[in-house]
Write a structure and sequence with these properties.
Blueprint: E1 22-30, E2 34-41, E3 47-54, H1 55-60, H2 64-76, E4 85-90, E5 94-99, H3 107-114, H4 119-138, E6 141-142, E7 151-153, E8 159-161, E9 168-169, H5 188-192, H6 199-214, H7 224-233, H8 248-257, H9 273-279, H10 289-293, H11 313-320, H12 342-350, E10 354-355, E11 420-421, E12 434-435
Helix pairs in contact: 4-6, 4-9, 6-8
Length: 436
């Protein structure tokens, strides 16, 4: 008699979602303790981006609290211009986020390849991201790390915000003071440590739009102190020949978002009045907001579908260098939570399963309080990982690959730098500082 081959257990698609529900496809990204790969749901055949985070590394890097917070915030969100959560689950080794698939690359990738984008394309993306920010702020969520690395394009060229790793809920009654994010995109009120709310995201959007149009950031410095001073004090200037790249209306919009007085900053009027003011700005006169938000408007920039819009070396690393490649594993049915560390137990209990087909989205506000532990972020959540940021971070030297287009050192003494505790991050991660 021939040997009887063991048949795999049937997959229970009616039960709780797990990794057995997905076909694992190519690896496309890597962060400090998380990786990203394309997956296909075995039943629906839909493609997604799977971000998976090693629990042991998460504990070692003291990032359990904000992995749980990111999972909770993503459950609240469903918007056309956000990389939305579709499933969440865990096994004994990893926590998993299954997210919308983005095939067009992040804006950092395209900015480095092209040098700059057309004003028409930047206006289109600024409108889309503005719509997403208004939605997040209506949910009382601040992103805090908006930059080209964290804006992903789909195959049709629509822009989406990703990476809520340091996002938080906010309240006007108790403003935030933590210095968190990528320094070059931080608003003056963050660096001043006098308290801030959602208005900081509109400043970051202004920095992104300026950089995409002109290929350089509006405020620069050779050192962290210089950059801090520039963001807080230097007048906004446009490069020589700016009028050849950007209309007067466009420069007015950029200046509006980069207004240091938050009561005058574009997009920052109380309640929803700020976004209405934003939409009515002359720069957006050509935008049809209805077709924009239902994604029937044609993007001025379409990513090249014949080229890989991500670093192909991630696939080789997974094949050749990974000691413990990802595969579906059954959970230990006899696991005793009392034998786990407090951090591991927190993940087991608080990183709950989510299935968008079976569960309604809900808000954890006001119970989801700000995370105040030292933060270390993973790479972007869509298919395309963040590109090299090179953004100076408080308390850290410039990262490898940093841009060299900074201003000369200012002779005027800069304001004191807030005391911070930093952790070095892998290239491509969100650059994060959290004030002590």
């Amino acid at each position: 008699m021939g040997a009887v081959c063991c048949k795999p257990d049937p997959i229970d698609f009616d039960g709780e979602v797990n990794l057995f529900h997905f076909v694992l496809l190519r690896s496309v990204g890597k962060g400090a303790f998380g990786k990203v790969r394309v997956v296909q749901h075995k039943q629906t055949k839909d493609l997604y981006a799977l971000k998976y985070i090693n629990k042991a590394k998460c504990v070692k890097m003291k990032a359990v609290a904000n992995i749980v917070q990111e999972r909770r915030l993503l459950e609240e969100i469903d918007h056309p211009f956000v990389v939305n959560l579709r499933y969440a689950f865990q096994d004994d080794e990893n926590c998993f986020f299954v997210l919308d698939l983005m095939l067009g690359g992040d804006l950092r990738f395209h900015l480095e390849r092209l040098g700059s984008l057309s004003e028409e394309a930047v206006r289109f993306y600024t409108a889309q991201i503005g719509s997403a920010l208004a939605f997040l702020h209506d949910k009382r969520i601040i992103h805090r790390d908006l930059k080209p690395d964290n804006i992903l394009l789909d195959e049709k060229g629509n822009a989406h915000i990703t990476d809520l790793n340091i996002a938080v809920h906010y309240s006007e009654r108790r403003m935030l003071t933590g210095v968190a994010g990528s320094m070059a995109y931080m608003a003056p009120e963050v660096l001043a440590k006098k308290g801030y709310i959602y208005t900081i995201d509109w400043w970051s959007l202004g920095v992104c739009a300026y950089e995409l149009v002109f290929g350089r950031r509006p405020f620069r410095g050779k050192t962290n102190a210089d950059l801090t001073y520039s963001i807080g004090r230097d007048p906004l200037q446009f490069p020589d020949g700016a009028e050849q790249k950007c209309s007067r209306e466009g420069m007015m919009a950029l200046a509006g978002m980069l207004e240091r007085d938050v009561t005058k900053r574009l997009g920052c009027r109380p309640k929803n009045d700020g976004f209405e003011e934003f939409k009515k700005h002359p720069w957006f006169a050509s935008i049809d907001w209805d077709t924009l938000e239902d994604k029937t408007a044609v993007s001025p920039f379409i990513p090249d579908s014949k080229k890989a819009n991500f670093d192909a070396t991630h696939e080789l690393e997974e094949l050749l260098l990974e000691d413990n490649p990802l595969k579906a594993r059954k959970r230990n049915p006899n696991q005793d939570l009392s034998n786990l560390s407090a951090e591991m137990r927190q993940m087991e209990e608080q990183f709950q399963a989510y299935d968008f087909r079976k569960m309604k989205r809900r808000s954890y506000y006001p119970h989801n309080q700000q995370i105040i532990s030292t933060l270390t972020a993973t790479s972007s959540q869509g298919v395309i990982p963040s590109s090299r940021s090179g953004t100076p971070v408080i308390g850290m030297e410039s990262m490898p690959g940093a841009r060299a287009d900074y201003n000369e050192t200012s002779s005027i003494p800069p304001p004191p730098i807030p005391t911070t505790k930093m952790r070095p991050l892998d290239k491509g991660d969100a650059l994060v500082a959290e004030a002590l």
